[in-house]
Every structure is written in C-alpha cells, then in structure tokens.
Amino acid sequence: MPSVLVLGFDPKVVPGVDVAAFHAVLDNELARFAERGIDAAMTLLEIDGTAEPTAAEALAGRAWDVVVIGGGIRKPEQSLEFFERIVNLVRKHAPQAAIAFNTSGGTSVEAAERWL
To answer: Is residue 21 packed enough to be buried (19+ CB in 10 Å), middle (13-18) or exposed (0-12)?
Structure first.
C-alpha cells in the first residue's frame, strides 16, 4: 500500500481561517486517500520552534512514498525560508520520497497520485 505524508500549517495559526471547516476538509482528504487504498497521515505544523522537530519526527517515522507540502507553507512570500527548511527536512529524513504540492487542502490526493 503506498504511503503519503501531508505537511501543512495548523489552521489555528492561520489568521482568518475557520478552524472547524478546515479540519473538515483535512478529514475528508484522509478519507479520500483511504478510498484509493493509500495509507496517508497529516502533520500540522505551528509557526514556532516546534515545527521543524515535529516535521522531522513525522518524516523519519516511516518510509513515505510521497510527501505533500501544503500551499499555506509554500505560497506566502513571508514563509519562503520556512518552506526551504521543510523541503530540506524532507530531503534529509525521507530522501526516497517524491515531493508533491497541492493547490489547497482539498487537493492533496491528486498531488500525491501524480507521483505514486
């Protein structure tokens, strides 16, 4: 069974986001992965000193076929350095994994399937 890790910002740290609605989107994505026979997990990161150790632990926890990096991490210009650190953590802790990018919290399955 293919495996996918989705890394994204915890919606509680994103200004103006309806946290409950966003969690519903994420739960729906996990269900869509399961429907396709893909073992998926999500790790939600806060913008603080815990983000990198949390990401590194998730990445090193098992072998992943694909790591999807969410748009919230890579799109805002002010997150560029954080995005670079996350990409390099993937390279270090999951070098065998393809890296994919979603366009929203609801397109992680399609992003991962491009590389499975």
So the answer is: exposed
